[in-house]
Amino acid sequence: MHNFTISLYAFHLRHTLTDAPNQVVSDANLLWENLANLGRGSLPFPGLNDLRSKLICYENGEYKPQREQGRRNECLTDVGILDLGSLPTKEGFKIKANLQPFLLNDSYTADLTITAELPDITIDIPQVQHFQPIYLLPANIQASLGQTLLVYGEVEPDENCSELAKKLATALVADTNINLEMLPESEFLGSLIFAYQAPDPNEPDNPVKRVEILIILNRQQANTIQLAREAYDWIRNLLCYEHKINYIYDLARERYRDAREICSYLENKTQNFHQLVSNSQTPLPDLKQFLAEVPQKSLDYTQCLQDLHIHHTSITTNITNYQTCLNRLGTTDGSVPSFWQDFLDKDCQKFPEQIQIDINYLTPGKELFSELVDTIRGIIETQQTEIDRSLERTVQVLGIGFGGGAIVSDVITNHIDKINIPPTFSLKNPPHPFYASLLLSIIATLIFIRIGLLITRRKIS
Fold first, then answer.
1. Is 9 a domain residue?
2. Same domain, yes or no, for 17 and 126?
3. Which of the listed residues 230, 257, 291 is the one where a domain comes to its end?
4. Ramachandran bin of 190, using left for φ above 0, alpha for ψ from -120 to 50, beta for the remaining angles
5. How far is residue 404 from each of residues 285, 423, 453, measured CA to CA in Å?
6. Are residues 58 and 129 in the same domain?
7. Which of 140, 172, 232, 410 fits 133 for a cystine, CB–CB 3.0-4.6 Å?
8. 3-state SS class at 199
């Protein structure tokens, strides 16, 4: 192969819709940090090691995203393409690299391209390892939206491109446990294009960690490089939208699972509530415990629904943008790869429909759980009112009783001081007036309590 090139397109989320204009996600700079780390180790290109000093979002080595505000172009450098320098290989030839960093709406994009310093050098399959492709895989880049490896090579007209592409893809994931799946062969920009995908063995459902490889083999001396330069923005944006669509759909499925767990929890609580209120003597503390748990879960459920609505809007917007890019590429090349068209016709139809189905399925639960909270609050207010009335009645009865008893006691005590007899108690002598007055006070208090009961009972009835 001649003009052999490996390009890494990595896409990383900078901020979300819920972030303030001057805020970014917590790991917004992870993509640039990981690329700089490669420059200090596995891919020691001088310019990659010193990447921070070349990006406008850094100042004195510190990440300062506010410096990006007011930019009129997408490029995150003042010089355009960054020349990262070159490295020698064990076989005598050198490889060179360049980087194009971008801010595309809410996402960072890095295009790291590695190629032989002299384009006429022949690169065979074993020599692919000199480009260190293993360090360009998702495990090392950790781009939050996903990434694509794009390989280009020029071959002889009689080359078996299908077999060569398979060997190339295998070499790119050598020394890993990744099993690649080949998509249908297509044509693009006058050359053959082969696509391979493979999920991460440890997280097969995570699209961010999925390996995606595109191999373009030019065997007819087509003007593919020039056409690719003219369509560069559309190719880059198309890949970005593709990864964002998969990323958003994965988030939506995760929120749906969260909502289903909450729904199951609240349904169990509803059943327990029905059993609890069937008992006429339901303790008020048990109801208050329900009220302490259910509203927060109901709020979490509502948040899941709101997130699903946001994801639905976001995914439809990105699908529209993806289709625009695909249409523009079609006008550039006359045709587009079948796997990109299949993604639009199948996945881009399925994803928003599935999210809408999830929303329709979950929406009735929101109303049910809101009514459950209102019902619990109503029962608590009713029981609390009855308790307050009972307490008020008790206070009134005791007030009448002790008040009346105190009046009687006061009358008696006013006459005790006229009786000059020591307050002794003996069975041989008649009771002292003090004890008699005490007994009379108690009897009077009980009588007035009885009167208080009769009075408050009439008020209640």
1. yes
2. yes
3. 230
4. left
5. 36, 25, 13
6. yes
7. 172
8. coil
Please count the structural domains in the chain.
Answer: 3
Give domain status of residue 235, yes or no: no
In the structure encoding, which two tokens stand for residue 103, read together?
């801010």
Instruction: Kindly report the three-state secondary structure assignment for every residue of 247-264.
Output: HHHHHHHHHHHHHHHHHH
The verdict on 409 and 436 lying in the same domain is yes
Q: Among 204, 230, 256, give the residue marking a domain's end.
A: 230
Q: Say how far apart CA 350 and CA 344 lie, in whole Å.
A: 10
Alpha helix positions (H), 191-231: 224-230
- Pair of tokens at residue 322: 């993806």
| Those residues with Cβ within 8 angstroms of residue 73's Cβ, 6 or more apart along the chain or in another chain | none
Each of the 461 residues of the chain gets a pLDDT tens digit; together they read: 999 999 999 999 999 887 777 899 999 999 999 999 999 988 999 999 999 999 999 999 999 999 998 777 899 998 889 999 999 998 889 999 999 999 998 999 999 999 999 888 999 999 999 999 999 999 999 999 999 999 999 999 999 999 999 999 999 999 898 999 999 999 999 999 999 999 888 888 889 999 999 999 999 888 999 999 999 999 999 999 999 999 999 999 999 999 999 888 877 776 766 666 665 555 556 566 666 667 777 788 889 999 999 999 999 999 999 999 999 998 877 778 999 999 999 999 999 999 999 999 998 877 667 666 666 666 656 555 555 555 555 655 556 555 655 565 555 555 555 555 555 555 555 555 555 555 656 676 667 556 655 665 655 45
Residue 409 sits in which domain range? 388-460
Does 372 map to a domain?
yes
Indicate if 376 and 411 belong to the same structural domain: no
Q: What SS3 class is residue 212?
A: strand
Together in a domain, 41 and 145: yes
DSSP 113-166: EEEESSTTS---TGGGGGG-GGGGSHHHH--SSEEEEEEEEE--TT--HHHHHH
Question: Is 162 within 8 Å of 145 (Cβ atoms)?
Answer: no
Q: Determine the residue type at 227.
A: L
Q: Which two tokens stand for residue 81?
A: 């393409």
Residue 42 and residue 18 in one domain: yes
Nearest to 438 by CA among 460, 418, 410: 410
- Exposure b/e, 19-48, CB count within 10 A at least 16 = b: eeeeebbeebbbbbebbbbbbeeebebebb
Looking at the structure, tell me whether residues 374 and 453 fall in a common domain.
no
> CB–CB of 225/267 below 8 Å?
no
